[in-house]
Amino acid sequence: MAEQLLIFEKSREGRGCALMPPCDVPREEIPEVLRRKPAPRLPQVAEVDLSRHYTQLAKRTYGVNDGFYPLGSCTMKYNPKLGDQLAALPGFAGVHPLQPEHTVQGCLQVLAEAERALCEITGMDEMTFQPAAGAHGEYLGLLLMKAFHRSRGDTRRDKILIPDAAHGTNPATAAMGGMQVISIPSDKRGCVDLDALRAAAGEDTAGLMLTNPNTLGLFDENILEITKIVHDAGGLCYYDGANLNPIMGMVRPGDMGFDVIHLNLHKTFSPPHGGGGPGAGAVGCKALLVPFLPLYKAVAAGDGYAFSSPAQSVGSVRSFYGNFLVVVRALGYILTLGAEGIPQAARQAVLSANYLKNRLAQRYDMAHDGVCMHEFVITAARLKKETGVSAMDVAKGLLDQGIHPPTMYFPLIVEEALMVEPTETEARETLDAAAEAFFAVYDQAQTDPESLHRAPVTTPVRRPDEVAAARHPKLRYAFAQE
After folding, report:
1. By 3-state DSSP, what share of the chain in percent is helix, strand and coil, each rounded to 5?
2. Which segments of the chain have a pLDDT < 50?
């Protein structure tokens, strides 16, 4: 395959494709102080070359529309095109955030109905859609917890308890929120060590951040005792909703004892996920935290809807009202599936994960035995010891088999970890094909392990030097005269 040149490398002096219409408004010169001195070094290419360049790049990308995409804890499931159609409706796509409330009643109704549906699913009392992503929602959740404690004059509480199997954003969020992170170890079953939690919880505990099911794909059967321990110590319980997909409609975080939750709408409720595009980290909470929610909530007012701001609001965490079109897609998904379809999707996600786990267990070692929820973790520790083939090598080998690899080296408590999440939208035939791809890599490790150190060999980009890329990243194009 021919090497893909950068657009700057295709530039030729004098070429272009801009055909600007005559200016139909009065010309206004930009003040000298605001003008750049050298002209911007933009690539000069013909329209046909520009079109081909980005078409070629598009063909090299890989997403859920291309094939199996089993990233663990990411829920990379199929995005129904109905959501795109809804988001493209002129009344949604063409709305402006500064329009008067009476001109955007339909949009406010979307926010209000999405809040009502998601509160029912999660067991929360109210919800905001302002956060732009899951980690952003985590940060808001921490702000709500801090505001609650301070409103009571309880300023001693500055410690957040976080299991060692947590998502990496949890300790990062706590640190950004000015909290001290206390790591709680897992027990032999992969769940929270209750004795360690009891020992850590105390008068300085602000709260607990927990994912259930956790990143090992295990539902903690002691969840009611866990939240009770934290509440008895005077702390609050935060639910990381990244793994809600296998339990939605089946069990509610609010009923488990959680006070605040974020939802990755782009994971659980079908809007596109990944690629740096807009997500939504909706945050729901119990009544005790409602007074501190961000500004601008859509509420019923008379015969319509209006924006309202809580009395003790922590303020805004981003401009305006969140990524609105993501909420439109999520609401369309919820209304389409309904009260029967939502739990059916959760059951299917669990079935898919257990089916693939049991197939792969024929050759690979699992971090934990027994039934999993939406995902499971393979440990390639023995494979590496016997053949020298690491989890990284397995992942790279899967690329040559035509599928996207699972999450590598996470959670950190599992040696040589590969975390796999099939999701509910994959057919049995796809899961069988994925299992055969895993088997092919395993057999290759037994017969020709050295070849896997060079994998992938069939992809447009071969195996990069990832250490060098991390330590010496090239973030801008170096022009010849530089």
Report:
1. 40, 10, 45
2. 1
**DSSP track, 411-436:** STTSTTEEEE---TTS-HHHHHHHHH
423 with 413: CB under 8 angstroms?
Answer: no
- Contacts with 468 (C-beta within 8 Å, 6 or more apart), sequence order: none
User: Looking at domain 81-337, which of 3.40.640.10, 1.10.10.10, 3.40.50.1950, 2.60.15.10 is its CATH number?
Assistant: 3.40.640.10
Report pLDDT for 482: 52
Per-residue confidence (pLDDT) for residue 476, from 0 to 100: 86
pLDDT tens profile 200-250 = 999 999 999 999 999 999 999 999 999 999 999 999 999 999 999 999 999
Task: State whether the Cα torsion 226-231-233-234 is positive or negative.
Answer: positive
- Which pLDDT score is estimated for 273? 84
Domain positions in the chain are 81-337, 341-470
Residue 216 corresponds to which amino acid? Answer: L
- CA dist 157 and 203 (Å) reads 7
CA–CA gap between residue 422 and residue 278 (Å, rounded): 23
Residue 275: its pLDDT value, please?
66
Q: Do 233 and 253 form a contact (C-beta atoms < 8 A)?
A: no
Are 111 and 327 in contact by the 8 Å Cβ rule? The answer is: yes
CATH fold group of domain 341-470: Aspartate Aminotransferase, domain 1 (3.90.1150)
Do 206 and 146 meet the contact criterion of CB atoms below 8 Å apart? Answer: yes
pLDDT of residue 39: 85
